[in-house]
Amino acid sequence: MRLLAAHDRSRAELSARLSAAGHPEPELRAALGRLAELGYLDDARLAAAEVARFRGRLGPAGAEAKLLGRGLSPELAKGAAEALRAGEASAARALCAERYGAPPFEPKVLARAARFLAGRGFSAEVVEALLPRDDDVR
Q1: What are the sequence ranges of the domains in the chain?
Q2: Mean pLDDT of 82-109
Q3: pTM for the whole thing?
Q4: Which of 60, 109, 124, 130 could covalently link to 81 via disulfide, CB atoms 3.0 to 4.6 Å apart?
């Protein structure tokens, strides 16, 4: 309970922490099951909360990677990250404007902005639509 009091954790994170503390596997499974039964341990709720926190900062691929890093199942991570797809273009535009100002960009800044957005998990289609290609800038 102390581990969950600070912030939500995934089932995998909590299991790893308790296992590292030396708790036996049968007790661990029973405790995790009881915590889930009581509603204290809910990977779907964690995924939704994390995606809400990522909104405007990460694209769907970046959010999915973060969720997978927290030990969530690939299906749950992908499903939760899809919620970011709807506002992906506007989030990418806002992030780009915040960091690099308004277009048009010189080629060097254009490449840097494209790498930045791709690194945050925004799709290539959104990056290409938002930033003109290097050939178009000259």
Answers
A1: 1-41, 42-86, 88-137
A2: 89
A3: 0.84
A4: 60
